[in-house]
Amino acid sequence: MTSRKKVLLKVIILGDSGVGKTSLMNQYVNKKFSASYKATIGADFLTKEVLVDDRLVTMQLWDTAGQERFQSLGVAFYRGADCCVLVYDVNNAKSFDMLDSWRDEFLIQASPNFPESFPFVVLGNKIDVEESKRAISQKRAMAFCQSKGNIPYFETSAKEAINVEQAFEVIARNALAQEESEDFSDDFPGTININLDNDQSGCAC
């Protein structure tokens, strides 16, 4: 059996402070949830080995501090990312409104080769909070995702472990596809990747 090179996938998780980025990572990697809130200072990362279509890959999940003063962490933090996860709190309208600027910030800092086809995934977190407190409807979030080129969308709860595994499965698959397309364009400089898969079924829930 031929041994394939080990694949390391770099995933950046962005969003306002307090939306649950660290909790989502901890739930996915360690199957743990902590109710005590501690703001991330600068950046932190966790790794997890996962199987994607029978390929063993190592996911490196980078969690950023949502505070503005840490937003300019520098190009090195973003560079080389294979997927970007945008997280907001479904009970906090401002955190949803900020998704656009987080997305723009990522594309400027990471400057991927093909920004129009770079994989993003949107997570609407904290759906365990009672329905009456909800500020952003699923319909509105899905409309945003469709307007940005059918970004996959999941509603999650880090606390109750709802949809966390499913969301990161899609994140891993999209990151691996991005990594392989980058490898292909490195092997054939000057080639243009054309994404023919345009009839994706929109936002996944």
Automatic annotation (TrEMBL):
Q: Which UniProt keywords apply?
A: GTP-binding, Lipoprotein, Methylation, Nucleotide-binding, Prenylation
Q: Gene3D superfamilies, alphabetically?
A: P-loop containing nucleotide triphosphate hydrolases
Task: State a GO cellular component annotated for this protein.
Answer: late endosome
Q: Which InterPro entries match?
A: P-loop_NTPase (IPR027417), Small_GTP-bd (IPR005225), Small_GTPase (IPR001806)
**CDD domains per UniProt:** Rab7
Q: Does the keyword Nucleotide-binding apply?
A: yes
SMART domains for this protein: RAB, RAN, RAS, RHO
Q: Tell me the Pfam families matching this sequence.
A: Ras
Q: Which GO terms describe its molecular function?
A: GTP binding; GTPase activity
Q: GO:BP terms for this protein?
A: regulation of vacuole fusion, non-autophagic
Q: Which PANTHER family match?
A: RAB FAMILY, RAS-RELATED PROTEIN RAB-7A
Xref: NCBIfam families: small_GTP
Identify its protein family: Belongs to the small GTPase superfamily. Rab family.
Q: What is this protein called?
A: Uncharacterized protein
UniProt source species? Terfezia boudieri ATCC MYA-4762
Provide the taxonomic classification. Eukaryota, Fungi, Dikarya, Ascomycota, Pezizomycotina
